[in-house]
Amino acid sequence: MRLTKNIFEQKASRITRVLLLNAGTSWTTRELAHEANVSLGYTHATVSTLLKSGYVTRHASGNPSVEVVDPIRLLSRWASYNDYTSNGNQFIEYYSYDKDIDTIIDKLASASKEDYALTSLSGAWLVSPYVRPIALEAYVYSKSDADSIALALNLNPIPKDGNVRFVVPYDTGVFYKTQITRDVKVVSDVQLYVDLYNFPARGQEASGRILEKIKGVWADSLLGKGSNEEALGKQPDLARLHDAFRGIA
Predict the structure, then answer these.
(1) What share of the chain is helix, strand, coil (3-state, %, to 5)?
(2) Are residues 59 and 151 in the same domain?
(3) CATH number at residue 38
(4) For residue 62, what pLDDT is reported?
(5) Residue 24: left if φ>0, alpha if ψ -120 to 50, beta else—which one?
(6) I need a surface site. Which of 28, 156, 194, 219 has the fewest CB within 10 A?
(7) How far apart (Å, rounded) are the C-alpha atoms in residues 99 and 136?
(8) Residue 81: exposed, middle, or buried by beta-carbon count in 10 A (0-12, 13-18, 19+)?
């Protein structure tokens, strides 16, 4: 049986991301490969590794399918492994004379026509405000997209320590299920958590707030609203998940 050496490497992370952002959904290998835009063979190897590690379970009835059953452990492992500042991301620095982060964000919402998605502390500031950022950070598809946004926002290029930082990502999968907040594009909560976990300057504090938001979504989709604790205790996978949501695991 072919396995993936690292379920958090570039292509494998696409599959991990799809599973985490669609918790409660069962996938055939072909469906998962299509959604993650990864080859069928590589998807099969990654799923086999996830099964062996206990992150997903296989449903044998009808068309064989898999579903994530331990999303908190999977997300935590991924976040611990990932380093947003040194995982192959390319950073492009600019300076804005606007010192207030909300002013820069509002200008981005009204001026930019390019594809982008806020991340790190600036993304968390919109999704679950806790740590006020001193710089705006956003993924873009290319340097030319960064230059176009910089022109629209009247930003000045700077070698380092800018207060606006565009990021050409190690993989475009980071744009999967981008969300809109205050008319601004932000990466998914799962991507936010992964990027923030090892981020300096209070990144873990901000990631904790994002995790609580993610847990709420997963509790509804995996456990069901108003789930009966006694019934859950009779189902090992759900019981373990339930304990994790309560902070026991």
Answers:
(1) 50, 15, 35
(2) no
(3) 1.10.10.10
(4) 64
(5) left
(6) 156
(7) 11
(8) middle
* 111, 181: one domain: yes
Answer whether residue 185 is part of any domain. Answer: yes
Local structure of residue 200 (DSSP, 8 states): T
Query: Is residue 236 predicted with pLDDT exceeding 60?
Result: no
Q: List strand residue ranges (DSSP E) for 74-163, in order.
A: 90-95, 116-118, 136-140, 156-157
Q: Please report the pLDDT score of residue 230 as a whole number.
A: 41
On whether both 43 and 100 belong to a single domain, the answer is no
Contact predicate 111/102, CB 8 Å:
no
What SS3 state is found at 53?
A: helix
| Pairing of the two strands 65-68 and 156-157 | unpaired
Does residue 226 sit within a domain?
no
Task: Please tell me the predicted confidence (pLDDT) of residue 219.
Answer: 86
Q: What percent of the chain has pLDDT over 90?
A: 71
Does the pTM surpass 0.85? The reply is yes
Domain that holds residue 33: 1-69
Distances (CA, A) of 35 to 15, 18, 40, 101: 8, 7, 11, 35
Residue 102 shares a structural domain with residue 65: no
CB 116 within 8 A of CB 185: yes
| Number of domains, the chain | 2
Query: Does residue 122 form part of some domain?
Result: yes
| Closest of 147, 142, 128 to residue 186, by C-alpha | 128
239 part of a folded domain: no
As a whole number, the mean pLDDT across the chain is 87
CATH of the domain at 191: 3.30.460
| pLDDT exceeds cutoff 60 at 248 | no
149 in Cβ contact with 114 (< 8 Å): yes
